[in-house]
Amino acid sequence: MDCEYEAEKALLGAVLLGQEESFLVLCGMKPYEFGISLHRLIVEAALDVGLGCDLVSVSDWLNRHGKIKDMAQYGLISDLTQGIPRLSTAQAQHYCSIIRESYQKRAMARLAKTMMSQCEAGKTGSEVAELAATSAQKVKASMDRKRSYTAKELAQMEEKDVASRVGPRPDGFRWSIPGLAAFTSDLDRGSLWIVASRPRIGKSTFLAGAIVHNLIGGRRILHFACEMGPIRNVWRILSVKSEVPVWNIKHFGKQTGSENKRYLEAFAWLQGMNHYRLVDHPGIRPSQIRAEVRTAEAVMGGRLDAVVIDYFQLLAADQKYTSRRDEGTEILSQLVEIGSEHRVPVILGAQLNRNAETDKKDDVPSLSELKDTGSLEEKASGVLLLHRWNLLEHEDISDAKIIVAKQQDGGMGSLDAHFHRYIPKWTE
After folding, report:
1. Which of 211, 215, 208, 219 is nearest to 170 (CA)?
2. Domain of 97: which CATH number?
3. Is residue 160 one of the residues assigned to a domain?
4. What's the domain range around 223?
5. Within this chain, do residues 289 and 402 fall inside the same structural domain, yes or no?
């Protein structure tokens, strides 16, 4: 216990001192892995605050959430920072392994007590042995990020999963365009979908349409707007919902009587929206995204239906890298982990290679244009490529195409679409 306590004290002390390397290691842990109840609260607070947390911000979080009422405990939290040097990543990881090993031993000790109580309750030896084997396997699985499976185990997994696939599917996130929604079906929880285009094509507009469509369906959406400020995103959302051109919303006096009525109805709808949260944060990091996801789940009172990020090139990694490709690969790995951990699809906007931009009709984008963007193609469950031809024509509607360039559990193909200029949306 002394070794475990010292490991927890060193790791959390470094986090409370603002040491980012230790915080990034902590991001891979769960509060329940810590043996001391106060330490579990500190981990919960630090993970929710995100990168940049320290003694002051963690203490403030604990106070605001009513986690600690005894003032003496704040003194114990402050004591964790005493005598803690700057930890290297390797040191933090070593302390992490000590904490996890101790957690596993505690779990097995609890299992032993359960087995004793089962024996005393009159269970047969075979029943107790089966309980022990099952429980021990659960403990091991919770500690191991990866497992190997026999063919028999895989078949058993499929047999259990079939039951969840019989009958109606859960109503998850769906694209706003019916033909595309039918082609791709619901986006699986934990999947990563890329919506990519060249500059000025309308990926933000496409994402805004999908967001409004799902908000109308009552789904919980967390939206990271890394490019446009909150007010411009509000204009887009209100325009899509009300069918009033963005220009007329921006210049309020330009609206006709019918437009004003639709705008006010959309405004009232947005004002009462309690399952949508927008984060305006250019250069946001995965650790901060993780913290925002936790916050959104708490505020909305349940699991999210989608995390929409606009867009990839405006994200930053939690660590510094010499190349943008390495940085991008790390960002994507963290986003996949966040989606898997919270069982939520992540929809990520991305910009294709600017050098390939052209207005030629036959210059349709391809998956190869994602090659220099940090393993986007490899990490994604699905990739949509958006394309328009007549960019320079001042028309109300532009001919467009939506290309399903990758889909792990489905086919590939394309869908003819229209891009609407003044009411920013994509339609069939």
Report:
1. 219
2. 1.10.860.10
3. no
4. 178-427
5. yes
Residue 163 lies in a domain: no
Angstrom distance (rounded) from CA 48 to CA 220: 19
Same domain, 406 and 354: yes
Question: Which ranges of 251-383 does DSSP label H, i.e. alpha helix?
Answer: 257-271, 286-300, 324-342, 376-379
Before 103, cis peptide (omega within 30)?
no
Judgement on whether residues 239 and 348 belong to the same structural domain of the protein: yes
| Same domain (yes/no): 98, 244 | no
| Block residue for tokens 């979908």 | 193
Same domain, 73 and 195: no
Q: Strand 346-351 to strand 192-197: parallel, antiparallel, or no bridges (unpaired)?
A: parallel
Sign of the CA dihedral with 219 first, then 225, 228, and 230 last? positive
The tens place of each residue's pLDDT in the chain, 428 residues long, gives 578 889 999 999 999 999 988 888 888 788 888 988 899 999 989 988 887 889 999 999 898 888 887 778 888 898 999 988 999 888 888 898 889 888 888 888 877 887 788 787 777 776 666 666 666 655 555 555 444 455 665 666 666 656 545 544 446 788 888 888 777 766 777 888 999 888 888 888 899 999 998 898 888 999 998 887 788 888 888 888 888 888 887 777 667 778 888 888 888 888 888 888 888 888 888 888 888 888 888 788 788 999 999 888 888 888 777 777 788 888 888 898 899 888 899 999 988 875 544 444 457 887 777 755 556 777 788 889 998 876 655 555 678 889 888 888 777 888 888 888 788 788 88
CB neighbourhood size of 371 (10 A): 14
346 in a domain, yes or no? yes
**Which residue has tokens 């349940």?**
302
CATH of the domain at 194: 3.40.50.300
Overall domain count for the chain: 2
Tokens of 396: 């109300």
Query: What is the spatial distance between Cα 105 and Cα 1, in angstroms, rounded to a whole number?
Result: 11
